Amino acid sequence: MRNFEYWNPTRLFFGRGETDRVGQECRKYGERVLLAYGGGSIKKTGLYDRIVRRLQEAGCSVTELSGIQPNPRLSKVREGVEICRREKVEVVLAVGGGSVIDTAKIVAAGVCYDGDPWDFFTGKSVPERKLPLGTVLTLAATGSEMNRNAVITNDETQEKLVVKNPVLFPDFSILDPENTFTVPKDHTVYGIVDMMAHVFEQYFHPVPETPLQDRLAESIMKTIIEYTPRVLENPKDYDARATIMWCGTLALNHLIEAGLTGDWATHRMELELSGVYDIPHGAGLAILFPQWMEYVLPLIPKKFAQFAERVWDIPRGNRSDEDLGRAGIERTRQWFREIGAPTRLREVGIGEERLEEMAERVAKRGPIGSVKVLTKEDILTIYRRSL
Fold first, then answer.
1. CATH 3.40.50.1970 occupies which residues in the chain?
2. PANTHER family per the record (predicted)?
3. Which of 108, 202, 238, 305 is exposed most, by the fewest CB atoms within 10 A?
4. What are the residue ranges of CATH 1.20.1090.10 in the chain?
5. Within 13 Å of residue 113, how many CA atoms lie on the same side as its CB?
6. Domain 185-386 belongs to what topology?
7. What are the pLDDT digits (tens) for 129-168?
8. Quick one: what percent of the chain has pLDDT higher than 90?
């Protein structure tokens, strides 16, 4: 295990009815609130009216940033920064999933920066402060409600990049599982794939002697696998939704990566896919991850054998570590298919045409991977094997 520092300042309010705290929590930071949300589903479910009512009861005035899309756009961030400055916003409130929260994070930081928020993603600048930020989570997936990460797509260049900075931790997040009851099946599935992929990135690594981190990661993976059928069969199963929601948060609140170096190559490769083709992030991860696993299997066969035995309960028999690990990888691919995720690029309309271009762009952004540092040729091979 390696040395580490762990700090997570986000205050969580978890459970049924916690949504009603939103007004009093925002009011602690100011009166003028920017309400950021997506395509309008929160209005259909009544959540929008509920939140606005609670904000007004607490003495807050509300300005809106609506229409935030999946694979959130830089143009919407810039719009949000402009609104905040014009309306003298004091608090940013994100109501939605990871795309809304990530947009709100960069808006909150961008207001406090004199340049273009894209500078945070290109390394030209780093966030130094932000407006107070709260979230009401409506989709269990990214863990953005309790982490320091944000992912944004540049509309003009089709680049989809990530920034990681402690300034971006939300000040508070409200996790009410009832707010996920109406999430469509495909969004639920892609959210589940995303949280599993987050655990994969931190579980498969080259650092020796991380038994506690391994067990934490394995418990999250096994719980997701156990509760996914319940969520898909009955979207209003409160306990199942609550369990999946908490798994999504724990999968990427930086706890299980303490003391190790995660890989994150698959995420870097997928960001290029969804940046160029605008496919769901979870779909891209379901396609790429089994291919990456097979590619690096010979480098850490014992970890993959452990994964097969502990997570998928596959008996060893007379198999070698590599053969057992391969069985675990195939079971992972099969599970993705069972829950309704794609496992081939052609299933989402992607062919050979831009694979080399994308591989080159990923490689140019710096070394990726800790299990194996991937070159352009490695990345292109994984892309091609995913067709």
1. 11-180
2. ALCOHOL DEHYDROGENASE YQHD
3. 238
4. 185-386
5. 23
6. Dehydroquinate synthase-like, alpha domain (1.20.1090)
7. 999 999 999 999 999 999 999 999 999 999 999 999 999 9
8. 98
The CATH number that domain 11-180 falls under is: 3.40.50.1970
**pLDDT tens for each residue of 176-193:** 999 999 999 999 999 999
